[in-house]
From TrEMBL, chain A:
Solute-binding protein family domain mapped to chain residues: 83-465
InterPro entries assigned: Peptide/Ni-bd, SBP_5, SBP_5_dom
Pfam families named in the record: SBP_bac_5 (PF00496)
Official protein name in the record: Peptide ABC transporter DppA
Gene Ontology BP terms: peptide transport
TrEMBL record, chain B:
Similarity comment: family membership: Belongs to the binding-protein-dependent transport system permease family.
Chief location bin: membrane
InterPro entries on file: BPD_transp_1_N (IPR045621), MetI-like (IPR000515), MetI-like_sf (IPR035906)
Compartments where located: Cell membrane
CDD domains: TM_PBP2
Pfam families to which the protein is assigned, alphabetical: BPD_transp_1 (PF00528), BPD_transp_1_N (PF19300)
SUPFAM superfamilies from the UniProt entry: MetI-like (SSF161098)
Annotated transmembrane regions: 12-29, 101-122, 134-155, 175-193, 229-255, 275-301
Protein name: Dipeptide-transport integral membrane protein ABC transporter DppB
An individual GO BP term: transmembrane transport
Amino acid sequence: MLGNRPWKMAVGATAIALLAAGCSGGGSEDTDATSKSIVIGIGEPQHLIPSNTTETSGAAVLASLFYPLIDFDEKSQPVEVGAESVTSDDNKVWTVKLKPGFTFSNGEPVVSDNFIDAWNYGAYGPNAQGASYFYERIEGYADLQSVDPDGEDGPKKAPEPKAKTLTGLKKVDDSTFTVTLSTPFAGWKSVMGYTAFLPLPKAAFSAPGTIAEGFEDAMVGNGPFKMKGKWEHDSQIVVEKVADFKGTAPKIDGVTWKIYQDQKAEYADLTAGNVDVQTTIPIESLAAAPGDLGDRFQKSPSSSFAFVGFPTFQKEFAKKEVRQALSMAVNRQEMTDQIFLGSQTPATSFVSPAVAGYRENTCGDNCKYDPAKAKQLYDANGGPKKIQVTYNADGGHKAWVDAMCNQINKSLGIECTGVGEPKFADLLTKVEKKEPVGLIRLGWVMDYPLMENYLGPLYGTGGSSNYYGYSNPAFDNLVKEGSAAPTTDAAIAKWQAAEDILADDMPVIPLRFGQNVFGHSEKVKNVHVDIFTKVDLYKIEINS
Amino acid sequence: MFRYIVRRLLQMILTFFGATFIVYALVFANQDDPLQALAGERPITASVRQALTERYHLDEPFLKQYWYYMKGLLSGDFGTSLTGRKISDMMTQAWPVTIKLALIAMVIAATVAVTAGVISGIRRGSMFDNTTLVVTLVILSLPIVVLAPLAQLIFGIKLGWFPPTAGAHPDFHALLLPALVLGSLVIATELRVTRSSVAENLRSDYVRTARAKGLSRKRVIGVHVLRNSLIPVVTLIGVDIGGLMSGAIVTEGVFNIPGVGFNLFRGIRTEDGPLVVGFVSILVIVFLVVNLLVDLLYAALDPRIRYE
């Protein structure tokens, strides 16, 4: 009789399952209220090796683990932090002197080789480091890359690059090294503020040019905090204060970087007091946030910039008057107020207010909402009767694109429609095939606070994010001259002249500048979120 | 019995390979630029793109990619995700928490559904019956995207009975709220099936016979009616277990539980073939094993069913 046996088995299995579910688990991760450690929410970082970290979650964690050569003051000017001095006579050969006495949290002293090895690793093409393009300006970068002789789809593999180390990096002694650029660049000091220019300890490498297995999960840095335990993927990264740290000491004892997949869940924990700082409050929670948080709901400038670009391969937008008219037909203020609830501000310039050299309203009348003038200009120049704005549907852009189209329809009496592509990559594919996508929705977040970081990638010929193909030799020259200028002030003057060309050409319609919309718990005070959307860990304090 | 189980296990192997092949093909068809999907809107330099394409065989034809994957899978290697993490590591982290969540949800749902269903079935048309019908109707009509955040807001934040999010290593208490939300997905259907099944069996001949024999009411309902009425319910519960594990994407997102649903979502979003297929393969096995168990349970519930 098998009558009774399966019954018992089923009951037993259920009992075991329940027991397992109830008893196991429970790794207590709650930090008690009296501790001087705080909880900050992030997303799961893609990587933590500095030269491979290109998103904000990873950069936030690195900011606690590392003490950079250069950081930025309130005016976005570069200041030496881990470096004693960064100097150059000709903007081509830069001498970096390190502050003495610093060590990695594993006890290794911080020496020149730590920087040189880390950067060589990052620049070497086959290592496929996401931030490798930052080393582009250093002499010898091209020799570390290799080109597949028959393209990506071809059967041949790319040959090994010519060199493994950058010729532009030279050690002088243990605390001094030089960086030689292929062409002079006045803003190099600012570039070195990016996470890609952090050092790596000897322990990071199992062999020269190879990162040790498991190092990324247990990063060792030269910063005020060190990792406690390992990177618990999708869960948290706990860092604790380094005893007798040589640099500026933070006022907190540690940070738990708590990983959230969904910002709405993070916001729920913020309101319940389980998270101390949330750097980005999701748009769905914006309406409730002022009531939930009171004066703990705050805003600060960020570097993000939203715009739509005109594809140069579509002849109907070839006339600049048509582009100007479309820009005038958009009411930016209404868009930021109604749709973004004031979390973003209208943009009437081509670079973000976060960078030195930003001027208000460089776009002038072309970005002023003036439906009457817009219609007259549009009709006089034979603007198309039907246009479309293409966006990626997975980024929450539908609402504002539709609103913008409505504004254009009302102002110009034409037919504008928003078209969603599933993903950003789909949009790019269509643009590459030169399909008539109409206006393209785009955005930009800077890597280092220089005007050049907007002008070059967005509007320069062949710029990395210049998908619409804008090209103006006069503009390119001015940007290049600015980069080669002897001082940053002289550089800014050139770059501003370049920006003035954009105001007339209107290759894009500037729409909005982003802000950090952040909130914090009652446990902490003095919360600052910088232009890179990072919490200032040296200023934040525990409320006593 | 033994031969039956062996036969089923052999069928499972075929089903498993068929299912992974189809899933791999579907993910491959959906894949146009996983590197860009991972980078978001950041531009990728040509040399990075080239190196990663070669590392993950992204430029190779479908069958070749599938061959690489299967070769790894058969030697116990699930491969690496596009962010360089071992998928086997991701699975050992994700599965336990999802299994816990699904089991708690299932036990809660089954207990409530069977108890309330039996009572409703016995007292058809009563106050209790009508109330449960209305309540299940409400739950059925509330989509989980509404129910989950609502429960989080009321019980997690406003009343503070439960922690608002559970995290990666939750205790029983933290999982209770998400499990309740998840369980409510299936509770309504399970309850209604139990109710109608009990109601139908109550009218059958063998029940009348049992009563005529002078058996106590408790024994008639508890043994004769319930045992027969459970067959359709057990089938449903079996299917639901698999559904609860794979279908927890929304619940896991709202309560910040990095489980299977979350990983599937991430894999689909970043067009990460090995990640999706790895998790789905295990899901397929879960479905197959649960179905086998359900079929074996039939024999226990109804002695007339025999497997040879």
